[in-house]
Write a structure and sequence with these properties.
The protein is mainly alpha-helical and 178 residues long. 69% of the residues lie in helices and 2% in strands. It has one domain. The protein has 6 helices and 2 strands. It has a two-stranded antiparallel ribbon with strand order 1-2. A hairpin with a 4-residue loop joins β1 and β2. The chain is elongated.
């Protein structure tokens, strides 16, 4: 189990670094697009499409890292109303829903890739199906990380230690005014 977790740590770190590099590269491309358009009065056809495709990759890679690190969006109000034993099951249900959504991303994303593969993006000359590969790649990583969370949780590991820790709310007379 430790070897698998270490491997998933490396995959997660790699996804995070690739997402960060994609963000930096997209920023450079957009800067180049603005510079060329407004300073040189010239238009590049590849910059906008390339920036959008990079954005798709870093969004889906970042979402996968968020699932693994428990930073994804959630509605935690019910968690604070439940007794501590019930939180584990509610988090497990959340992971099952995330896993099902990720499987849908993979299946329908792959269908989009196949449907659009023969068409060409005129600005880049590459298959249009490439635009949907981030959906499949992100879905694969999200499903992998959600499955890891489920396996670890039901193996007795506390994967939600930070998310379920409850700090006592101080009494009003203990709160200091700023």
């Amino acid at each position: 189990m430790n070897a698998v977790v270490r491997l998933l740590n490396r995959i997660c770190d790699g996804a995070l670094y690739i997402a960060g590099a994609g963000l930096v590269l997209m920023t450079c491309i957009v800067f180049w697009q603005v510079f060329v358009r407004y300073v040189l009065n010239w238009t590049n056809t590849w910059t906008e499409l390339t920036a959008v495709m990079l954005m798709s990759w870093f969004i889906f890679l970042g979402a996968a890292v968020g699932v693994r690190e428990n930073y994804h969006l959630g509605f935690d109000v019910l968690l604070y109303a439940l007794p501590p034993g019930g939180k584990k099951y509610l988090r497990a249900i959340s992971d099952v829903v995330v896993l099902a959504f990720a499987v849908g991303m993979i299946v329908y994303g792959w269908q989009l890739v196949q449907l659009q593969w023969r068409a060409r993006l005129p600005a880049l000359g590459i298959p249009e199906g490439i635009r949907y590969l981030p959906l499949v790649g992100g879905g694969l990583l999200i499903s992998l990380f959600a499955l890891e969370r489920l396996v670890l949780r039901f193996s007795g590991f506390d994967v939600d230690a930070d998310a379920t820790a409850e700090e006592p709310i101080p009494a009003l007379d203990q709160v200091k005014e700023v």
